[in-house]
Amino acid sequence: MEDAGCAQFYTAGGIQDKSTFVKSLETEARRVDLERATGSSHNAAPRNVGSLEGLAAAYLEKELPFFTKRAMAQLRLAGDRFCRISWEGLTHKFSGTDACQVCNLESPDTLTHLITECAVFTAQRSRLLGRATLSVEQLAVVLQLEEPTGLLKFLRTALRLRLCAMSEGAIF
Ligand SMILES: [Zn+2]
User: Are residues 65 and 41 part of one domain?
Assistant: First the structure.
């Protein structure tokens, strides 16, 4: 209440100006949310700076198929410690405590590793995302693209190949 500057609207007789009080509380709550998201170590996905004004992330406002929006939401919310991506009827699990079984280079098995640097997907990354490897900053840019077709094509290929690599030797 104090941080939101709400105390000035509250008197011994109760709240005098309810709409100003609510607006002030709303603005403060958004500011705190954004501050916490910016300082979060959950993942390196871009933060929605428009949230201070109550705006949704751009990809949610754009006319895109539901599948695309769902995929983008999953990618942007994926954490580096653990995440699960549902894609074309299959569930792909990532755990940062395990090593990537695709490249076998002892890199953590995270979605960030798969998209930005896994050596097995260098050719696909170059062709569809324009670079052989991506930095964390470049990943943030890719996750904010208004036209994410290249990213989704890359993931379709990479997730399928990863699943094949991980099921090698598995008994069906
Ligand atoms: Zn790898």
Answer: no
